[in-house]
């Protein structure tokens, strides 16, 4: 018989498809048997004015001082009701009215349900005393026992009491205390001489303890995490939460690594009338990591993010991240950066906004993590001004953009500069039922005041450079609905588009450094824009320092299919290409110009071929190389929020990389394939598994597996992973030398509120390649 060998990934996928999804929702299961309040909420002060309804088999009434009721006695007053064998009510006019419950009773109000023997109720307020009570919180999980319970409007005091959020007959965990005080409105409990038990076995004692009994934030210990890393050793992380005020809170997380030492991670969140934001830091005084040679220096991170709207028209935004060294994100798992990040941003912006214009002043800086001696420029200040006016001319809309920027660099070999830029634009839009024609003319006028670098070997630079570039653009769009449908039940729409763009050539060799190794970058970013939608952009490069000449026609279009019943979009396909009527260039450098007659074909498509299935792909074919340049694909099956399977593929040819980005450090194609599965097997078990493999390197990039087991009162998550890490210092660094970190971790959580999440989203967010939702067309 032929044997079949299945990988862990394949078995997980098959198990997911055949899992039992017919079980009830976990929340519904957990709330079965939890008493619910069905009446009307009454304010505490109104309790004295509410009538009392009493039913019983017999009654002995001694007006006006007392009455005794026996046999299936039912008492109802406002939000509370009692069933008891016998009750005696004593009253003194309107000053006192006490009910004495004798025998077995069953009491319930909007906060608590209790059973026991003998109790006392004050019928003029909400005070009550129960003896030998079994109690259950109303509307949420939480139950226990107590020898004596004193209930008032906002406080429940229990003697020799127990508490657990587990369901009846489930003794997974419980807390016992000599005295337990539950603060109802504040949603927390105080305990004296508390003993924490697991399966009835005491494992922890504290003379004083607090824990929440609701969803309100409370200061205290949060869920810890622990595990092992082949690189960092054993680790334990214990977050400590401080609820400073309703609008301010903080978390301090000390983490111990057996092979590295201690790391402290404070985080402060705030919401004030001056805006909302977050301030965080990470600090390790001395890193004992074996491949970190600068052990005498601290390693740290500082993060600040803030946004504010004030004085009606003013806006402020800050996004600041700074780390101690280039390898920080490669060596630490941080919430404020990823190991795949090549830089950290430090941006500030203050703006004033009106309906027709806005003004802002900003500062920008990038902290790059490469080993190059040439760093990106920082901008301080950058002053922007925008003005908009429709119908300034007949059928013509006018806009104006102006900017003043100062560029500086940490490298003394690089020049510094002031840049003054204005960009007026007039657009004539003509729109009717057939489509639209936009005729636009624009002027780029830029002047540079440049200064040579301070280093002795710095290149000379032209002090004054002026660049004036007019631009003309004609953009034609139309939308056509197909009368002869290709597919029954769907409406097809065609959106062809043709754009002509002209901009004369201006040699921009004198802008920025004259070094042939750095020319072409300018002062701001100059990233080449490549995808389908970028085909219709005005400029090939981002930034203002490299504006390539243009004499080109861009042809493209999109077809869409809409479901006739729902009206939702189920499929689209876009294709486009640029035809160069003359070479596009920014200077005399060969790498900053085009030598061919057309750009690559760019294709993009989305297909929701089933309510649970979605496919997305993009493709670029280079007509000069006569080969595929770029390709990527994502196929996702997602029948519910907690169930998904996603397959991914990415490709970039070596020739394309060499042609556009210079030397290829890998000297081969980029071919990566990956899969991620997240599945709730049933209401208790959910898992995540992912694997990404580089087919060109023939080596795995990342493998992960995580599983969460949830019950109504606790859950536990186990996580294991193997992923690439940066080349350790002093180790060989070549295509055949790769290094991995093997990790294992565990999280345990007691459920005290109403959060019944499967925890799948936390598992999917882990790793150097976290799950990303596939584009969904609706």
Automatic annotation (TrEMBL):
The lineage of its organism: Bacteria, Pseudomonadati, Pseudomonadota, Gammaproteobacteria, Pasteurellales. Residues 1-24 form the signal peptide. Together with LptE, is involved in the assembly of lipopolysaccharide (LPS) at the surface of the outer membrane. GO terms for biological process: Gram-negative-bacterium-type cell outer membrane assembly; lipopolysaccharide transport. The keyword Signal applies. InterPro entries: LipoPS_assembly_LptD, LptD, LptD_C, OstA-like_N. Residues 53-187 form the Organic solvent tolerance-like N-terminal domain. This is LPS-assembly protein LptD. GO terms for cellular component: cell outer membrane; transporter complex. Keywords: Cell outer membrane, Membrane, Signal. Component of the lipopolysaccharide transport and assembly complex. Interacts with LptE and LptA. Residues 297-684 form the LptD C-terminal domain. It is found in: Cell outer membrane. Belongs to the LptD family. It comes from Otariodibacter oris.
